[in-house]
Amino acid sequence: MKKGSRMVQVERGEHVAGTEDEQSALTPQELTAYCQKLVACGELEHAVGLAIQAAQSTQDVPLILAAGLFLNRFCSRYEVVIAVFRKALLLLPETEPAMASVRGEIKVFLADALMAAGQREEAMALFMEVAQTLPEHRPLVGAHLSMALLEAGMADQAEQILAVWLRDEPPSISLYNNMGCALERLNRSREALTYYRRGMELSSRHETVSFGYAIALLKAGEYEEGFARYVKRVPRVPSLECWFYQDLPRLTKNVPLKGKNILFYQEQGLGDTIQFIRFLPQIARQAGRVTLAVPPVLVRLLRESYPMVEVCPITDILDHPELAGEYDFSSPIPDLPYFCGLRSPADVPAFSPYLEVLERRRDHFAHLVEQAVAQNGRIDGPSPTGRRLRVGLVWAGDARTSAEDVAADRRRSTSFAEMMEALGPVQADVFSLQYGSRRKELEQAGGPVVHDLMGSVQDMADTAALMESLDLVISVDTAPLHLAGALGREVWLVSRWDACWRWGDQGERTPWYPTMRIFRAQELSLAPVLQDVGHRLRQRIMEA
């Protein structure tokens, strides 16, 4: 929201509906601050519930708007967000000219939610109505419309909109940032750099622009400057009030490590930890004591792979702020490439598998796989060519909760049914490696037999052992993909068209995982690229 906008004036109490009792119970500022504090403490669901309750129980427009703006960012239940903004519009008198500007801003936020919910025709109509009837809001419309298109996966349309707005409107940080984002997602990262630089010229300390610039640099292969900017981000941790972020200085480059005790902690996704943990030994050899604080699902795998360091569940570490005195520094795990001086993709260290699988665990899952294959053989009859290819499938990422993360997951994930339809009947033994709530899709599955041994899997150490008995893993861009790559297993990535920075703008290969082949979508739907994967799989089976 713009400083000095009409919305700010309304929040200060100018002509709003609702009783004095309702307004005195909880101010918009108090609601926003409390909900944000809950998010910072890792209680997103509680915060969302509080905002929904506040919006439902009042006729006070500023309070409703505060709830709606919070929900628009953090709630993926778009029907709720839409209802909140519609309620605010109903309570604002349409006949009062003084309220026209405020209603226009609310319509922009409502259009955001409608776009996220897939109601694009109504969303576009609202955006255009505000742009045409309220010229002072054109910059706001351009920023929100382009970002809504980006989050919906329509980067090409966002670029077209932004070209018009940048031509006709005064320069703004939001427009430059969004154009940089659009070009990066269109896999034109070097072009994106120009727009991010223009945005930083307007505000050199703007965190969103700086982070976007870092991602575009990394995607363009400019690792030295990219990681130098990447490490300036505010970490995505369960709570910014956690003691290892608040009470310990953040590790920086060129700090003498000899004798220093360092706590590296999980940040962002599990895949980020798996990708970057390969750099840990270089730091551990120099430092005094090194501790990894990671989600429980990674603890056994990393303890067995890196016995030279201490590995603890991050849930346990969070509960013991008295440990702060034992450490000199803390650092998010994804900062490791920067400390190790990675300058370009060519500098990624020569690959060898860097995660360990205990022999007894490997043997256990090998036995389960053989049992499943034998059972399938009794159903289908013996394979005419002997041992069949064994293929593991992952079709969706982990469940997300915030609106931004849900939008990103929609772009990267598919469904079990869509993946199986594309792969078609194949002479292979197919195993599900899907985790989380999306594993339930197997229950409604018909057609070819797909083995599901994930009921025997407790964590990533077990998943790794299961992968060791498979010949090929096919996965969307999520943690098991990184696990297969780190183990040196043959793995095929089904990449969304706005590919993650680590896979670059183009190409089938990546220096991060030499055994990976990248299948890049050329449009929003993953269906066409999955057809390519199915075709290549049938060729692979014939070659086996």
UniProtKB/TrEMBL annotation:
Residues 9-18 have a biased composition (Basic and acidic residues). It comes from Bombella favorum. The lineage of its organism: Bacteria, Pseudomonadati, Pseudomonadota, Alphaproteobacteria, Acetobacterales. InterPro entries: TPR-like_helical_dom_sf, TPR_rpt. SUPFAM superfamilies: TPR-like, UDP-Glycosyltransferase/glycogen phosphorylase. Residues 1-23 are annotated as: Disordered. Keywords: TPR repeat. Signal peptide: none annotated. It holds the Pfam family TPR_15. This is Glycosyltransferase. TPR repeats lie at residues 173-206.
